[in-house]
Fold this sequence. Notes:
The protein is of the alpha+beta class and 388 residues long. The protein is 48% helix and 16% strand.
Amino acid sequence: MMVNELSPSSFGEHMDHLAHHLITIERSRESENTLKLALSRILYMVGGTTSHTQQQYFKSRQLDHFLKQALDCKPKLDPGFDDTMSEIYKEFLTKVDASPKEARIFLMKQRMEVLTENNEDSDLMKMLDILDYLVADAAPLPDSKSSELTWYRKTAHILDILFRKSFISLNDGELCSNATKIARNENRLLCEDNDDKKSALGRKIDLLLNASFMEISSSEWKKDGISFGLAEQQQIKNVRTNSAILRELLKLPINQEKKNDLFVLGMDWIGKFLKLFMHWKIKIYFIQRTIGVCGYVFAVKETNDVHVAYHVGDLILPASLSSFENFQETLDTLFSFKNHQLRLKRIIEPAYNKQSASNTLRSFRSVTPPPNQQSTPPNTFFTPVKKQ
Length: 388
């Protein structure tokens, strides 16, 4: 039976119909990105042309209630700053306005107090270390000819401090994601592309966060001066990677109440300029202006039978000493990002240990091999080898 002859009822089935609709129309960059998400059953509510295309489709078919349902399920971030951190940051702003030297002397005194109280691993100490690094490194940003790695290094040290002694590993250097490898192997079976003896490789990711032998987050960086199309392509790849990660986490034996609140966070980073751009259909404008290295945090959460991607906070590193006034919100968001990963680790660690023990003991408890588990939607789509 043809797809357009079916009568969809669930959100996921309507996403399947969107995929069929996109296959039948004239191909464009926007439709290709939207098709990849529709095939993955991902509703993209972060923004941009892809989000607009999806929402336009649902609204034109009087399916607004699905969009409202997705918005109502938007997850909340864990708290970032506590009251003490907020107060010290306000005092820091009065010092950084005077001079970098006064700011660093203030930070050093605060760090000495924290060390004296044996709180060297506290969030307060991490905030002070990050601020000192940024004040000391308040040099001109890389130019447009700098590599992606150069831009990544501007944020890498901040993340190293943030996750210090957290037992969450930060794996960078274009490593292959195991979650995307699993998804690609499923795609090979779906597309009858499994005649190749070689194992499919996972997508190469700029930064993967791992805890308890599981991937828990994916983040991507792009250097300054890239086109809007390339930036959007990164968005679509990264949200699908995090969707694949979420699918693997949801396979763990976690109780249903915790599963209902389970979601993953990822980051997308770009260079120091927002380029002037206007999309003629939806009139999106980006004005060129000098800011710090910028990006945003997004969440991916399962709602019924789809994965929904939400924007949850912007990230802008200070480009000068005067920019620290606006940096507090970014730093608060980064601590929220870190705290969520720690909470996720506490949830998956016992579940992973339970599953590992069960897999080890299964062969001793039964002589019949367990049946192969069938993949359940939403499936994450990555381009198959033969691109069928």
